[in-house]
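If you are new to this repository, start here. Below is one unmodified record pulled from the training split, so you can see the exact layout before writing a loader.
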Amino acid sequence: MNTPPSQPLGMQPGLGGPPFDVREVITYVQSVQQEFAEQPEVYAEFLDILKDFRLQRIDTQAVVERVSSLFQGHPALLQGFSVFIPADYHSETSDNAPRATAA
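And here is the target side for that same chain:
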């Protein structure tokens, strides 16, 4: 019986994209929290989006669309988010926002 190779400790698959280090996720989430320190409802909405994805209530395309809308005007956060999504969902816009482009 063939079993898939195990991932290194701390590595997890992204939103259907390549594996990433959990520390990268923590650092990114902390940067979102800091960016929206004066708007805790935006940070809470971001966490809700991630929770909905984890619970399979929404798919990758919905995550990309919701995060892109939520972080509009915050190109650094959008660029950082693009690391966690499959290349099929990347499309450069005027502020480097990831945009759902997969069929």
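Two things worth knowing about this chain: The two ends are 34 Å apart (CA to CA). The domain at 17-89 is CATH 1.20.1160.11 (Paired amphipathic helix 2 (pah2 repeat)).
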